[in-house]
Amino acid sequence: MVKAIQIGLGHWGFSWSRDVIPKVPTIDMVGYVDTNPEATQRVQQELGIDPKLCFSSLEDAAHRTDAVLAICTLRTEAHYPVVKRCLELGYHVIVEKPFTTTIAQGKELVALAKAQGKLLMVSQNYRHQPAPIAVADLIAEGKFGALNMVSIDFRRHGPSQDYRYWDMPDPLLADMSIHHFDLMRFVLGDEPVRLSCRTWNPPGSPFRYDPSGVAIIEFSKGTIVSYRASWMNSGPVTPWAGEWVMDGAEGQIAWSSRDHFRGKAGPDVLTLSQLDGKPEPVKLGAIAFPDRTGTLAAIAGTIESGVTPRGFSSGEDNLGSLALVQAAILSASRGGDWVKIAEVMG
Predict the structure, then answer these.
(1) Residues 130, 85: one domain?
(2) Number of domains in the chain
(3) Domain shared by 62 and 75, yes or no
(4) 275 and 174 in a common domain
(5) Exposure b/e, 142-172, CB count within 10 A at least 16 = b
(6) 88: domain CATH number?
(7) The dihedral of CA 332, 336, 341, 346: what is its sign?
(8) With pLDDT > 90 as the criterion, what percentage of the chain qualifies?
(9) Three-state SS string across 138-204, please?
(10) Which helix (H) or strand (E) holds 27?
(11) Of 126, 132, 68, 62, which is closest to residue 97 (Cα–Cα)?
(12) Where does the record place the GFO/IDH/MocA-like oxidoreductase domain (predicted)?
C-alpha cells in the first residue's frame, strides 16, 4: 500500500476524491489538503472522510502524516509552487495536466525530482484507454507499413455541454489539445519536429480566448499530423480523445476513445482497413485501471516495485507534450508561422 495525501479539493479535485482514488486499492489515503474550509467540509460530509484526515496546509499535513505520495489536483497556476514544495518535502508526486505553465518551470521540477530521487508523474489519463494502447502496439509492430498522414478531429459545443471556463487562457490548446498532443507522441512512438497552427474565436462565442484551431504537425520519422479541434463546433460530437485516421502504405487504422457524452459512456472503437479493403472492427479488451485510475495505479505500482511501466508519463517525458502546446500557442500568435519544437524547448 502507498500512503498518500491529496492537495486540492475543488471541483476537479473532488472528482478525484470521489471517482478515482477509491478505485485504486493500492492507495491508502492519510490526508486531504485544501485552504478552503468549505472544500474540506464537502469531502467530510459527502464522502465520509474523517475530519482528522483534513488539513488546511501542506506543511501541517506533512508534519502529521506519514504519506510518501502527493496527489496534486489543483488549478493549473498552482501546480508549479505546490509540486515544487511537495518534492522539497520528499514526496513522490502525481499532478494533473498541464503540470506547469512554462517549459522552464517544467524543467526545474524535473531536475528537482531527480535530485530528490523521487517520481514526478503527470496524469495523462487518455493514455490509459484500450484503443490508444492497442494502436500504439500496432504502430510499433509496423502495421500497414510506414505512416504517411494522420488526421484527427475533435468537436464539442461548449455552450450547450456545460462548459464552465469561459475566461481560461488558451481553452483549446492548453486545456484540451494537450491530451491529443500527448496521445500523438504516445501512439506514434515519435517526437514532433515543427508545427504550424491557427486559432480563432467564432462570432457569438462566449469564450474570451480562442476555442477553435487547426494545426499541421511534422514528426521526426516524417509523419504529418493534420489536427482540427473546436469547443464551438455544432457538428456531431466526437469522443473526448477525438476521431483518428492513420494512413499507412498498406492500409488505414481508424479509432476513437473516451466516448463520453451527457453522462453516457460508449466503448473505444478500432477498425483496420487493408489497402482497398473493407474496414474490419477489432475487439478491444478491458483494462484493469482505465483513465485517471490508470495514472494513479501506475505511480503507486512504480513506487512499490521500482519498475516503470510502458507509457509512464513522467515529468521528463511530458515536457514533449508541453512543448507541443507552447509551440502551437506561439505559432498561432505569429499567424500560423512554422515553429520548431527546439525553439520552445530551449
Answers:
(1) no
(2) 2
(3) yes
(4) yes
(5) ebbeebeebbbbbbbebeeeebeeeebebbb
(6) 3.40.50.720
(7) negative
(8) 95
(9) HHHHCCCCCEEEEEEEEECEHHHCCCCCCCCCCCCCCCCHHHHHHHHHHHHCCCEEEEEEEEECCCC
(10) strand 27-33
(11) 126
(12) 135-241
Answer yes or no: do 192 and 74 share one domain. Answer: no
* Amino acid occupying residue 60: D
The answer to whether residues 95 and 133 belong to one domain is no
Q: CA-based Rg of the chain, rounded to a whole angstrom?
A: 20
Q: d(Cα 290, Cα 310) in Å, to the nearest integer? A: 15
- Which residue, 85, 103, 122, sits at the end of a domain? 122
Number of neighbouring beta carbons within 10 Å of residue 233: 19
157 in the same domain as 42: no
- Residue 307 covered by a domain: no
Nearest to 74 by CA among 66, 82, 65: 82
Indicate yes or no: pTM above 0.90: yes
Amino acid making up residue 294 = G
Q: What kind and span of H or E run contains 59?
A: helix 58-64
Structure confidence by residue, pLDDT tens digits, 255-289: 999 997 766 677 999 999 999 889 999 999 899 99
CA–CA separation, 132 and 300 (whole Å): 22
Is the per-residue pLDDT at 31 higher than 80? yes
Helices 103-116 and 76-88, packing angle to 10 deg: 20
Q: Are 138 and 270 in contact (CB under 8 A)?
A: no
Q: Tell me, yes or no, whether 135 and 56 share the same domain.
A: no
